[in-house]
């Protein structure tokens, strides 16, 4: 089975897409599918930060690029 997610990418530019993911897919696996380094982003589900090793809960996901520097 699979579930639908709404995905918003805020990584320098803003893009939105709908995706189907496996019921057992974790947030970290989703980042791997999207070829995004998990050390450079924060994943939010309905506005709340989530641990990357958790299974994706349906909802609105936001992947936010973390900017740091000096």
From TrEMBL:
<dbReference type="InterPro" id="IPR012675">
    <property type="entry name" value="Beta-grasp_dom_sf"/>
</dbReference>
<protein>
    <recommendedName>
        <fullName>ThiamineS protein</fullName>
    </recommendedName>
</protein>
<dbReference type="InterPro" id="IPR053833">
    <property type="entry name" value="SAMP2"/>
</dbReference>
<dbReference type="InterPro" id="IPR016155">
    <property type="entry name" value="Mopterin_synth/thiamin_S_b"/>
</dbReference>
<dbReference type="Pfam" id="PF21965">
    <property type="entry name" value="SAMP2"/>
</dbReference>
